[in-house]
Amino acid sequence: MSSRMADARELIRGSARRPLLAVGVLVLLTVPILAPGQSSLATEALIFALFAISVDIVLGYAGLLTLAPAAFFGLGAYSVAKVVVDYGQSFWLGFPVAIVLAIALAVVIGYIPIKQRIGNVYFVLFTLAFGAIVTDFTTVTTSLTGGSNGLGFFSPPEVLGIDLGDGLPYYYFTLLIVAVFGLGIYRLISSDYGDVLNATRQNELRMRYLGYDTNRELMIAWIVSAAVSALAGAVYVGMVGIASPSLVSFGLTGDVIIWIIVGGTGTLLGPFLAAIALVFTQELLQTIWQGGYRLLLGLLFVVFVFVFPDGLIGLIRGDE
């Protein structure tokens, strides 16, 4: 009886996904038109949603706590700003530069704690050190990064006669990027590789005995996460026109980790929705209570860690 009920619940969930997905797509396509004054905020929310699901690959699926998400996000932003402002090159050239640099640094940082498997604690420490180095580097090296003033200002170019510097076109450009890479991440996680990654998180020793190269699987997740985080940062700097130290701060790292916990680690959709909701909530609270957002994040962290560990998605699914 219980198995039949479980199958019935799964059938209902599956049949409800398509109309919900259609509604979600419709909302994303029309929100900047229905609320034209909020197109920049909607763009920011989409970018941070992509950032959240990129970090969820490592945190939720690989089971590795990283303290360097903002470092890679900021790396993407500074790469584009450097290419455009200091070298006078195309805005578009900054994107592959950001991704390649992120991949290279991810390989260097992840090699010892992941490839050599010296322990997850050391992975946390390595990412903490990397995040601290990047934060200090962007603040101290004024000649390279602009120091506390940041590196900018610039705006995206025209594409087919469309000025991407305008809020509405850049929103749809961002939506396209998020759709392509978000779908790519979903397909990756839904593949056999995703199953292996999940199994590795649950019992790495057993997966090794079964002949899987768990170090390689974890390394792939780490590299993909870093690359997409850098891409999100590159898209973000195109919107704001300046790369600043706040983009590599531990505050942003804390934000994205809480978004993932609130949404539901290892779900992709949960962090995606939580990031969007909390970005809009932050904007709302700034007009009411300046310090309210940080207090809210702290409360949400405690509630969802100790009371609802499966996050919003777990609540929606009715997980016990």
Automatic annotation (TrEMBL):
User: What GO molecular function terms would the record report?
Assistant: branched-chain amino acid transmembrane transporter activity
Tell me where the transmembrane regions lie.
20-39, 91-114, 121-144, 170-189, 218-244, 256-281, 293-316
* Glycoprotein in keyword set: no
For the keyword Cell membrane, the answer is yes
Q: Where in the cell is it found?
A: Cell membrane
What membrane topology was assigned to this protein in its record? Multi-pass membrane protein
Primary location: membrane
List the record's Gene Ontology CC terms alphabetically.
plasma membrane
Q: Which UniProt keywords apply?
A: Cell membrane, Membrane, Transmembrane, Transmembrane helix
UniProt-listed PANTHER family: ABC TRANSPORTER ATP-BINDING PROTEIN, HIGH-AFFINITY BRANCHED-CHAIN AMINO ACID TRANSPORT SYSTEM PERMEASE
State what protein this is by name.
Branched-chain amino acid transport system permease protein
Give the species this sequence originates from.
Halobellus clavatus
